[in-house]
Amino acid sequence: MCVFNYQQVSIVCVFPLFCFRSRLLSRVLTSARTHRNLKAAAHLGSAASPSAALCPGSALETTMEPKLYQPPAGVRGMTSLDKEAFTQTITVPALRVPIRVLNKVIKSLKKATIQRPGMPRVVQDAEDGGDFRLILLDPHRISSTSSFSEAEAEALRSFEVSEELQSHELQLTYDNLKSEEVLEAVLPQGQDVTSAFSRVGHIAHMNLRDHQLPYKKLIGQVIMDKNPGVTCVVNKTNIIDSTYRNFKMEVLAGEENMVAKVKENGVTYEFDFSRVYWNSRLSTEHQRVVQLVKRGDTVFDVFAGVGPFAVPAARSGANVLANDLNPESYRWLQHNCKLNKVESKVRTFNLDGRAFIQGPLKQELPALLKGKGSVHVVMNLPALALDFLDAFRGLLHQETPCDENLPTVHCYGFSKDDNPDTDVVKRASRSLGFPLENRCSLHFVRNVAPNKDMMCVRFTLPKEVLFSSSHDPTEPSEEPAPKRQKCEETDSL
Fold first, then answer.
1. How far apart are CA 116 and CA 122, in angstroms?
2. What is the pLDDT, as a whole number, of residue 459?
3. In 238-283, beta strands by DSSP E
4. Cα distance between residue 398 and residue 380, in whole Å
């Protein structure tokens, strides 16, 4: 039995003669030495040694709470970034490890070591001539020797490394903090904090809320600092008032270079992000539809943008007719076809959507209906595409002898209805003038905003619509004048 008097650090040991005296005495002396170091560690603010011993239940434990991973309180409300203001000294637990087994110990304790941006896990032992190093541990994970898992403790025993914890002071700076930690410290308490953004090449694209706008320049700088390769941060404004539906943006930090280069599903695209539409979240949807296209098929891309459907479809061996009303999108579409060496497989047009359907598509379709390759019509403007389906009414005046190769339409739409599937089908049916219930399939693309879904309805264009004589093509053949809508309302592919 061992009794500690923590005031005098006296030790009384009682044990039978047959006990392993030396082993027990070693443990007792180690505990006493640990306690002596604790008395110094209790005053770490001014006199702690960089490698004082740490013991469970000590005052030192309270200095390593999660709050030590937060920036100083004085940075709250900062609107102009002062990196030096985030600097503070913290104390973390450490293990004293011989150099000869250092790499093996690090590997065994990889879940327990400190994980901070720009912060080393191994430092020099100030009390040693060079044969030992200190492995810094995560205080969230390790607060005492009992915090080690059985596997970790067994590894330390096998390498003959003492489980006795040391305390080590180190400096935590702005560079060691994550972006969300910085922003949580700066923005007013109780308000939403976001460090989320869409990345488009070198551009980080944010959608800040009103309460975050006073801090927008600081937020932009933090996002750029914490994300390697990001050299420009922009904020999307809330209003779209352009016929071409490209977002107005404000540069928050970095260079004002809006020409981005991105790679999606193995295809490279270049475009001026400030003048065209691009959404990196839709790469899976682009791939899903393109995988339905086979070599020899024909694709009519009504709202092609810069080519996320058209270019990979051409690369897969399809013949593509791609159209976009925006002259900038049209220009970058042509550029991306050349960039990916598919310009011979893609014919590009700069027309209104209805004009494209009732012009190039109408001209090509009769011959294609008699061919062997499938025909796909992609209508990827969710805010308006369902309204354009009426352009197919009575498009062809003479029915072809073969109706087995009717086009497959992939049409996108937004829905705020409680039953978005039913809502999208009803609206598509109304625009076509023909019921699509039980004659189409629905695919959920993504949730765009709370209670708002983006859907894709796929159906074979009914011959009753295509060859109808009771419906003339709908006028006017121009895209509807844009409304002043929130960005989320006009999200497109």
1. 12
2. 98
3. 239-240, 249-254, 259-264, 267-272
4. 28
Among 294, 338, 337, 341, which Cα is nearest to 318's?
294
φ and ψ at residue 284, rounded to 5 degrees: -65, -40
pTM (two decimals): 0.74
Query: Pick from 300, 281, 492: which is nearest to 392 by CA?
Result: 300
Adjacent-strand bridge partners of 378: 301, 410
> Can you name the residues that pair with 134 across neighbouring β-strands?
96, 123
The DSSP output letter for 479 is P
d(CA 350, CA 424): 28
C-alpha distances (whole Å) from 143 to each of 91, 93, 136, 184 are: 11, 7, 12, 25
Classified as helix, coil or strand, 275 is coil
Strands 198-200 and 203-206: antiparallel
What are phi and psi for residue 386, nearest 5 degrees?
Answer: -60, -35
5-9, 433-437, 455-459: segment of lowest average pLDDT:
5-9
Q: Name, in order, each residue with C-beta under 8 angstroms of 362's C-beta and a sequence gap of 6 or more.
A: 395, 396
Are the C-beta atoms of residues 412 and 380 closer than 8 Å to each other? yes
Given 3-state DSSP classes, what are the helix, strand and coil percentages for the chain, each rounded to the nearest 5? 35, 25, 45
Q: Are 115 and 145 in contact (CB under 8 A)?
A: no
Using pLDDT thresholds of 50, 70 and 90, give the confidence band for residue 401. Answer: low
pLDDT digits (tens, 9 = 90+) for 132-171: 999 999 988 998 989 999 999 999 999 999 989 989 988 8
Residues 6+ apart with CB under 8 A from 387: 431, 480
Q: How far, in Å, CA of 148 to CA of 127, rounded?
A: 24
d(CA 167, CA 126): 12
Distances (CA, A) of 227 to 46, 111, 197, 222, 457: 36, 24, 11, 9, 37
| DSSP labels, 294-329 | -TT-EEEETT-TTSTTHHHHHHTT-EEEEE-S-HHH
pLDDT digits (tens, 9 = 90+) for 286-297: 999 999 999 999
SS3 state at 242: coil
Enter the DSSP assignment of 9. Answer: T
| Coil vs helix vs strand at 36 | helix
**209 and 235 in contact (C-beta within 8 Å)?**
no
Other Cβ atoms less than 10 A from the Cβ of 57: the count is: 9
Q: How far apart are CA 200 and CA 270, in angstroms?
A: 10
Residues 364 and 349: their CA atoms lie apart, in Å, by 14
With H, G, I as helix, E, B as strand and everything else as coil, classify residue 427. Answer: helix
pLDDT at 17 over 90: no
441 and 456 Cβ atoms separated by less than 8 Å: no
- 207, 147 in Cβ contact below 8 A? no
